[in-house]
Structures are given as C-alpha cells and as structure tokens.
Amino acid sequence: MCLPPEKASELKEIIHNHLLKMDIHGKIREVLAETVKDDQGSSHQPLSEADFVRALQRRGIIDNVMKDLHFTQETATNIGPESPPKPAAHYVDQDSTHIKKTNIDPSRRYLYLQVLGGKAFLEHLQESEPLPGQVCSTFTLYLHFRNQRFRSKPVPCACEPDLKEGFLLEIHRDGFGDGSKMVDATTMLSMCDPVHMVLIKTDTSSETTLVSSYFLDWRTVLSSPSCKTCFAVELMGVGSESKIPAGVLTVSLELFPPLPETLNTDIISTQQSLERQRTAEKERLFLVYAKQWWREFLEIRSSHQSKLVKIFAQDENGVNRPVCSYVRVLRAGRLLESPRQAARFISLLAHERAPVVGGGGKQEQWCTLMAFLCRGKGDCEDHAILLCSLLLGFGLDAYVCVGTKAKGGPHAWVLTRGTDGSITFWESLTAHRYLHQPIDPDAPPLALQPKPSSPYQTVGCVFNHQTFLANCQPSDAVELCVFDLQNQSHWKAMSEEALKSVCAPGSTTSLPPLPPLCAPSLDPAVVSNRLELEMRLLVLEHRKDLDLATVWDDHLSYLLSSALSAYEMERCTGVSCGNEEFQDAVRRAVPDGHTFKGFPIHFLHRNARRAFATCLRKPKVDKTKSY
Known about the structure:
Number of strands: 20
Largest sheet: 7 strands, antiparallel
Strand content: 15-25%
Distance between the termini: 59 Å
Structural class: alpha+beta
Shape: globular
Strand order of the largest sheet: 17-16-15-14-18-19-20
C-alpha cells in the first residue's frame, strides 16, 4: 500500500505519540538492562539485535503496543479541493460511538484538551453502577472555543463519572488573511477567548438539566514545561446553586506543536490581571452611567418606577450583565433559510423556567447562548434573545421586548420594524406573528379602532445588541404604544457609546463568546422510522390489553406523510398548501362504508411513551379504534 507523503507523516506522528504515551523508551531501557545483565551472567557472547527483539517479545511489550494501537477509518466528507484543512477534532454522536477524524494542518497550532475523568459529583454519591444495557441518567460535556463546538459521548452519572475525552482545538489568527499562519506565543497571550465548558445531565426520560457552565482560561499552558499541563477544574452549580460546587474535572492541556520557548508565569499573570482591571473599570463606569440614566427616567414620571425596564440580568452563573450583551448578530449560514424558519426552529426548543427550590415565585436566569443550545430548552427570555439575534443576522431591524402578557405575568418577545414603519411582534415560543396597530386614544368615541391582535399587555423596554430604549409614554399598554423609537418623548434611549463599551464583541473579557449553530447530528428519516415503530408497538400493546386485534395499513400510513409535511410547511411559512391532494388520496384509500379520522399533535421531544400517554389523555382520541 502506497501512502501520500502527508498521510505517511501523519501516520508516523500517530505512532510516535502512542509510543510516548506508553513510555516505550523506559520499558526498552529496562529490558535492555536485564538482558545485558543476564547475558553477562551466562556467557560473554555479544548481544545481537535478534536477541533483544526476542527479549521484548517474551515480555509481551510488542504485543501490548500492537494491541493498544488502533486506527479509525476517516469518514469522507464533501469538501471542495480548495477547502482549508480542518482540525482533527472528533464529535461523538449520542446514537453512535464511532470517531470522526479530519486532517491536521502542520502549519497551524492546536490546543489538545483532554478530560481525564470526574470526581466529587456528590449529588450522585448514592447511585450504583448501572448494569449492562440498563437505561440510566448520563452526563454530556459540551465545549466551545473560537467558533468551534464539540461534544463528548454520554457517560453514566456517578460520583466519579468516567468522562474521558480528547478535543483538538484550533488556535487561529483573527486578522484578515492571517488565518493560515501559525500563531506565536505573543499572539496567543493576547487571546482572551476562554474555552466554554457546559455539562448537561440527561435523565432516563430524555429530560435535560444544566449542571454547570464554566469558562476555562487556557493560557496557563503557555508557561508550562513542554507546553503541557494538568490540573483540576472545580465546576460550580447554576442559578441559585452557583456558589455550590457541582463536581471536579481533571483537565490536561497541551500545545501542538510546542512553543520553542515558553513564557514566564509572571507575564501571563500580569496580562490576566490587566484584562480584569480594564473590564472592571468599564463595568464600573457603565454602572455609574446606568444609575444616572435611571434617575433621569424616574424624573419624567413617578409611575415609571413600576415599569418593567430591565437594564441588567443574571446569567446561569449568577453574574449580572447588561441585557444588550446577551443579543448578538447571529448568522446561521445555510442551516436556516429564512426568518420564519428561524422562528420555527426556536419554537421547537422547549420552554422551561429556571427551577426554584421552595416557593417565592419565578427565579430569574438568562442563560448564555451556549448553555441554552446545549440544554435544548429555556425560559421566554432565552428564546426571544436567540430569535432576535437570528433576525438581526437576516438583516431585520429587530428588538427584544420586555413586558407582560394578558394574564399579567412577565414575558419577553421580539419586535421588528419594517422600512414602511410597520411593527410586527414575533412570539418566540410559538413562532406566531402579530401585526401591531395602535389604538388612538384621542380619536372620537365612534371612530373605528383596530382590535388588539397580540396577547401582550404592557411593554417596559426594548433592546438589541447596540440599542436600549425605555418606554416613557403615559401608558405602557401595548395596544396604546407607538413604536416610533426615534421619538425621544416616547422612548428614552441609553447612550450607544456607553452600551458599546461593555456590550460590543471583545469590549470586555467577561462577555461570553458567541457559539455558531451546528448542523443536526440526527438523521430525520432514521429517527422518524424508529419512532413510528415504537409507537406501533405501544398501540399494539394497549389494544391487546383491551382484547382488540390490530391491523396496520402501510399504504394509508404513507399517505399521512404528505399531511405532516404540509403541517410543517404551514408552521414555517404561514401558508397552507397540499391539502387538496391529501384529501383526494385519503378518499381513494378509505374503503366504502369506512370513515377516516385523525388530527395532528405537536411534540417537542422524541419519547414515544410520553407521546402515546399524551394521546390517550386527549378527548378526541378513540382508544378502541385504529385508522
């Protein structure tokens, strides 16, 4: 077999790294010393190479090397001839354990992050080790670093979880045209982007829980001997438990290729201290400005004290940040094709409020985008922020609105302004859109007034990544509000320069980096077929308990796929199509004297048992008939 030069060098590097990991040189020295000693004790014949190889074989060293050295086949991807090589990182899917490998570019530098195991996850102290094949709760570790996202394979939850994964993170320059150049120590020292680590727990019913969200400063490796270091990372809880340790991960960092000369530890400490001081000073100045701005806002009307004007919000780690810093311009590439498809995508993420221990009402927790995406669910603020970020990426003039819904509960939604002055509300939890037409309170009593079309009751403020506006109109009722945001008598704006000093990307080191959206890791056809088989089995068992026979009509089942496609298209575009063809096909398929009945149910999960239990609770579902 003939290998190209780059493949041969890569193969040599893999073997070399494996031999170093096994400490093969030390083992060879031990065998050599013992062989020489035995040879001197028996005879004075010279030691040949064959004798030495036989000695290695007798001790099983060669067999151990070959047994532990595995090569995984590279998965082919449709990459063009001019596509740049990608880092050799692997991404392990939940439903598969094969490792996908990509090429390493020898002209670039990489950070190899290894998780060597976990300990002190005391919440799982009493949990016993799961039996083979037993369904159990799992931990999954997600990473984000400089526009790269990774995920570990799920491992069973335990006091000492077997979290052992390696991630190869590419360290590249930010300047235009410098992406292919290898970064030096000085450039890496100035990179304040942390490695964002998010630990998610998935229980046996596929419900996810955010365990910890940690920002790792990796630059300590720049001063370590041989550019390699190992240390323990204490993960803290989230929300009300953000001051309580959740567990400890042992982490190893290594630079490839290593630096010719490492930096002094004092230099790195000084750089980190200067970054913290600059960030603290900017945040202090903005807090002073925000207090002055709030006093001016209250002087306009004393009733403004009760309005929902949200300037700061706490993230999952209990850190107070300006609300504008949560919104960023996010482009989805070809993953989402339109603003309405983006709204549909976000509405599929489940809505769940931050858990509260005991009473006391709702706990506030605005998650970072990485934590929200990894968890797959969040509160209305998380949904609205992500939708606003995507709509900004699609070029719309979008804002997050903070106010109340019809029942008086706090709520967040999205507003977009058209070039013609039209105002559209977007409900991020449902993907519904509402055209806003304000009521004129000065109109004559008999004049026709538009009826409220949205479920929102009041609005206190609107904001995006560079604008914050508080509602200073006499009434904060949505139906009376005029969303002429440039009118200073209606909306009081914060200084854009003040907001930019703490909210613009790179303005402070405390801002979480913006993660990219990733392509789906599941095959929809495979997952839907599996779910259909599980649902059929549940229906079969349920009807068997009722002493009923079950016969499946595969042709009619296939016809229903067009209806499901039409429902999905209607949710994405707001336009219904294909209903005539579906009705005609069903009429042809149903025999004379029979009636077809069915209605769609929408789920935000893939748990067949939960879906079937929901269907049984629906009054429209006949539990004794199959169609």
